[in-house]
Amino acid sequence: MKWLKTTAVAACLGMLLVLLGGALVTKTESGMGCGKSWPLCHGQLIPSEIDTALIIELSHRVISGGVGLMVLLLSILAWKMVGHVREVKFLSFLAFFFLLMQGLIGAAAVKWGQSDFVLAMHFGISLVSFSAVLLLTIIIFEIDRKFDAQSLWIKKDFRIQIYMLTLYTLGVVYSGALVRHTYSSMACLNWPFCSNASPLDFASYGLGQWIQMGHRFAASIVVIWTLLIFKKAWKEYRHSSVMTIGWGIGSGLLILQVILGALVIVSYVHLGLALLHALVISLYVGLLSYFLLLSSRSSKNEKRTKKP
């Protein structure tokens, strides 16, 4: 069991590296660092000419391949050792399948090119795989240690809000990836409006500005929605540390995300801040996935108790 836990933690951290690596490739425009060659670099196993873009792209490929093998190992071990737990087999499949899909989309983009709207899916697909690995890790650690989440029952109206917020957040994540892939990060030079001098001047907006401001508006709804859910959790589930602390952390992550988003604009897309921006939203989506797991369990228990 100790080996399984170690593999799970390593795979989880590895997936975060894959997410950040993908964001780094996009931010530094290194996607074609190896030319139109995949999995080799410029058709060579060891490239003769090396530059920064090549190092970034090749490192991302190597890390993604290594983490992919680690996730596959975790999926096999979890299936065999804790497959009796209801969610394990589904999550094991989900983790590897979406990581494989992410790699294939990346390879297709290198070989044949893809539109910005397709490439923007890349980050979201990686997030699904990361979330599945994270949930597998949590389940593995739950087996020999009982959290108060084991007895938590989330009411139906609260579960519906969690489902809707998660779907909406994935849409916002897609819009953020679209900002990066369409090079719209600096389409608006001010914050929070595109032009603070004339915030309602929509007539002169170009496509990049609409994408940028659309993302900001959509993200603001996620922040407000999360804060409202935290308030509801504090009121209705004060006895549960999982609900109160969990949604408190979620609210804190989103407030930090807003601050980082503003700093990215002010700093003219500072690379470190941009990567932190990607990391924070990844952690938030991971948190949402955990509440999805708890909601699923509550729904099943509710149906079980209603049976005659």
TrEMBL record:
InterPro entries: COX15/CtaA_fam, COX15/CtaA_HemeA_synthase, HemeA_Synthase_type1. It comes from the Bacteria. Its cofactor is heme b. The chain crosses the membrane at residues 62-79, 91-113, 119-141, 162-183, 210-230, 242-268, 274-294. GO terms for molecular function: heme A synthase activity; metal ion binding. It catalyses: Fe(II)-heme o + 2 A + H2O = Fe(II)-heme a + 2 AH2. GO terms for biological process: heme A biosynthetic process. It is found in: Cell membrane; Membrane. It is a multi-pass membrane protein. PANTHER family: HEME A SYNTHASE. This is Heme A synthase. It comes from Halobacillus yeomjeoni. The gene is ctaA.
